[in-house]
Design goal:
Structural class: alpha+beta
Largest sheet: 6 strands, mixed, barrel
Strand order of the largest sheet: 3-4-9-6-8-7
Radius of gyration: 35 Å
Helix content: 55-70%
Distance between the termini: 32 Å
Oligomer: single chain
Length: 827
């Protein structure tokens, strides 16, 4: 007799019991969550440590100071007098002048920041790793990372040059600079204060600082007020604490952008893991239809079934998240040791990541739980249908994804035509189009699987069975394929985007820097034999000498001294694209020079040299060097009849090792005081290095998503083995051997991986090109190029297929291990 009260089912207890009795069914889901959460935990922890290390480096410079005065005047004598007056203020223990300058390393295009060494040892915020501090105007100490980048060691000589002067210094020691992610972004060095009073010193920065240490009798705020009264309001006076906060807010934007990038990739990994969880629980629902039907038959309501699956997913999410947090913290500790950075664990961020992992697991089960709740008691007691997961969706639901694809393509089309909001249209349209493609995967993946399996069908019955199994349950196949498509597509999109950006940048850099390599003397002639030395460098195909001289041009508000070059017809052969010789009735000027000098393009310009003057129309042309002019040899002779050989133009072999070429160039140019190395190869190296690092980092991060997707392939095969136990037994009874059964599952995995990779590559190439086009347009790059690295793309495909086949090994062994009689006896 019933009391009318609803039956209470211990759903949480049932869920935990299900996990205990069938752990193999969900171990892949736990691994996916663990990888995703571990990745995110490591990301936020490593970035927190990097931020702390970066902030510590900023604080270190002023950690012992109380007040910092940033002098706005460039007069060294006035700065020294101000420091002396501040030192006499009551409450001040010391006031040290800290001078800062910047120049490029002769023989290269690297800029180095030169800081005067404080007299007060308390203000030396870094330690020597070898050598000694600079003792005179000819000494310099480099950061250890800076020394590695410049290939210098203690005892070597380095020449630092600006536009007006240069100084050749001896490296007397190295300081600890650290190996964090941002180490080396600024090339640091220290010189003796007397360096700035020497005759050959380079200019002083306008942001010269006076570092003030109090005697402890006043607070920082009160001491700053007294110092400001002496400074007279002309210079910036702030407490060291205030300066630290200002610098941190200004200089940590790169870290925040990098952290945002890491979190975006982590979200992709979680999304791929969510697709896998949905797929897994759909299969589990199909396998447990009888069990669910029995629960419904004895009084279980639909909400009981839903709560049971949600409780199971919650338990899986908790276990996977806890393991992921442990994995992420362990990885962060290793990174902290390797990079010599502070280990900082942002507790609230780690907790948030763990909660997100649990939430993803629970949300991913909503659709399977809804489907399980719809199972009728009598229907569930029947034999499980093979297409339980592959039911045909209603017409409205099937029409939605194609509509999203069309809408996304319309947005992308607007991005090609609208110049103001091109990037927003392209990104938004690509996102909508990608969602539509993922949602409609069930309409095009089965035909692709059928087409890929057609050649295999002719190889024998095993391949025919494998192809038929992938098509028999399209729901399971499409869910697995969608995860692979997303992971592979993102990797290929990044590769295509980076290659296209590099190709586009190369084309624009070739136009901006028509000469691959230039070696120019700012003053005076090049030594004899320099042209031959440059031509002898491996990777240089052509090198020609160019005559140069210093000339004066009239500009707004006065005149300006610039370098004029007169390349002959032979020098023009070194350009990246054929050009006729320079006409004698025009002056070519760097476009930025015209803009800075206020000279209108096409106007007449008067140029005065040692031998005479000419007045000719001026035209902006990237052939002219920065702050320079290019004229015909006849015009140069009129300006300076004895113009010496002052530059070398050289052409590099396509595909040459730019890093090695630069190293050889520096060997040639370093002994030449006042020589400047330039040209397009240097700019290309900087751009290629940045793009390659971004691509390597992004590919490494997205490899997490690929790994999760491949774990999903193995999980799908493993669950399908359990689902098809009776079918496998029947095949064995009909004569299928164990190795044939294993091979059948391997072919299934290969087809799923190959289909997902093919669609992912096609979609990734399209979206990568769209992204490159949009970003290139935003950067005002012209002649946008499409480029795709075939080896990299083939590598992604091969890795996906091989990993998919390897994922079938354990399920295949499990399927082949059972004997036909024992398997047929199972329910």
């Amino acid at each position: 007799m019933t009391t009318g009260r609803p039956t209470r089912f211990p759903m949480a207890r049932n869920a935990l019991a299900e996990l205990r009795h069938n752990p193999r069914r969900v171990v892949a889901v736990i691994v996916a969550i663990m990888i995703s959460v571990g990745y995110l935990t490591a990301s936020v922890t490593v970035l927190a440590g990097e931020t702390k290390t970066f902030e510590r480096n900023i604080i270190a410079r002023v950690s012992e100071t109380d007040v910092v005065v940033t002098a706005r005047t460039g007069d060294r004598a006035a700065q020294a007098r101000l420091a002396a007056r501040i030192e006499q203020v009551a409450g001040v223990a010391s006031a040290d002048l800290s001078l800062l300058s910047r120049g490029w390393v002769s023989g290269s295009s690297d800029w180095v920041q030169v800081q005067s060494l404080p007299d007060n040892p308390k203000l030396r915020w870094t330690d020597l790793t070898e050598g000694r501090w600079p003792g005179g105007p000819g000494d310099i100490v480099l950061g250890d990372v800076t020394a590695r980048q410049l290939n210098l060691k203690t005892g070597d000589r380095i020449t630092i040059t600006d536009r007006n002067t240069s100084a050749t210094l001896t490296v007397t020691g190295l300081t600890h600079q650290g190996d964090s992610l941002l180490s080396g972004l600024t090339l640091n060095s220290f010189v003796a204060p007397s360096f700035y009073t020497a005759a050959d010193s380079i200019r002083v920065s306008e942001q010269t600082e006076i570092l003030v240490i109090g005697d402890g009798t006043l607070s920082q705020g009160r001491l700053a007020e007294r110092v400001e009264a002496v400074a007279g309001g002309r210079d910036r006076v702030e407490t060291s604490a205030g300066m630290v906060q200002r610098l941190i807010s200004q200089r940590t934007q790169g870290i925040y952008v990098f952290q945002l990038l890491l979190l975006v990739f982590g979200a992709v990994a979680l999304l791929v893991g969510g697709i896998m969880i949905v797929n897994t629980f759909l299969i589990l629902v199909a396998q447990r239809r009888r069990q669910i039907g029995l629960l419904r038959a004895v009084g279980g309501r639909r909400d009981h079934i839903r709560r049971g699956l949600l409780a199971e997913a919650g338990a899986i999410g908790v276990i996977g998240s806890l393991l992921g947090v442990g994995l992420g913290l362990a990885l962060s500790a290793v990174v902290a040791v390797v990079l010599d950075q502070a280990l900082s664990v942002p507790a609230w961020q780690v907790v948030a990541v763990a909660v997100v992992g649990v939430a993803i697991a629970v949300l991913s089960v909503l659709v399977p739980a809804r489907r399980a709740a719809m199972i009728a008691p009598l229907e569930a007691l029947r034999t499980v249908a093979g297409d339980a997961i592959g039911r045909r969706a209603p017409l409205v639901r099937r029409a939605g994804p194609p509509a999203l694809v069309v809408l996304g393509l319309a947005g992308i089309g607007l991005g090609f035509t609208d110049t103001l909001f091109a990037l927003a249209y392209s990104i938004g349209g690509s996102f909508v189009c990608a969602v539509g493609l993922l949602a409609s995967v069930g309409s095009y993946l089965p035909p692709l699987l059928r087409g890929l399996g057609s050649p295999l069908r002719r190889t024998g019955p095993t391949a025919r069975l494998a192809t038929a199994d992938t098509l028999r349950n399209p729901g399971r196949a499409t869910a697995t394929g969608a995860a692979l498509m997303l992971a592979v597509g993102l990797v290929v999109a990044l590769q295509v985007g980076a290659e296209s950006m590099k190709a586009t940048a190369d084309h624009n850099l070739d136009a901006r820097f028509p000469v691959d390599v230039t070696v120019s003397m700012l003053t005076g002639p090049l030594p004899a034999g320099t042209v031959g030395d440059v031509a002898a460098i491996a990777g240089i195909t052509d090198a020609k000498g160019v005559r140069t001289t210093r000339v004066t041009i009239k500009v707004r508000g006065g005149s300006k001294r610039v370098l004029a070059q007169g390349p002959g017809a032979d020098a023009m052969t070194t350009l990246w694209a054929p050009r006729p010789p320079i006409a004698a009735d025009v002056v070519l000027a760097d476009p930025y020079l015209l803009e800075d000098a206020g000279i209108r393009n096409g106007s007449r310009l008067t140029v005065t040299g040692r031998s005479g003057s000419v007045t000719l129309p001026v035209r902006g042309d990237p052939l002219a060097p920065t702050d320079g002019l290019v004229v015909a040899p006849r015009v140069l002779a009129a300006l300076d009849a004895g113009a010496p050989l002052g530059a070398v133009w050289a052409k590099a072999r396509p595909g040459t090792d730019i890093t090695a070429l630069r190293s050889h160039l520096r060997t040639v140019a370093e002994p030449l005081t006042g020589a400047e190395v330039g040209g397009g190869l240097t700019a290309k190296l900087i751009y290629h290095t940045a793009m390659d690092r971004l691509l390597a980092m992004s590919t490494m991060l997205l490899a997490v998503a690929v790994l999760i997707a491949l774990v999903g392939v193995g999980n799908t095969l493993g669950l399908s083995v359990l689902e098809r136990t009776r079918e496998s037994a029947l095949l064995r009874a009909l004569g299928l051997q164990r190795r044939q059964l294993r091979w059948m599952l391997a072919i299934e995995a290969m087809l799923l991986s190959l289909a997902g990779a093919v669609v992912g590559i096609a979609a990734g190439a399209f979206f990568g090109w769209i992204g490159a086009y949009a970003v290139s347009g935003e950067l005002n790059l012209e002649n946008i190029q499409f480029a795709m690295s075939v080896p990299q793309t083939l590598g992604v495909t091969v890795v996906a297929v091989i990993a998919g086949v390897l994922a079938s090994v354990l399920p295949g062994r499990r399927a082949a291990r059972a004997t036909p009689v024992a398997a047929l006896a199972e329910t």
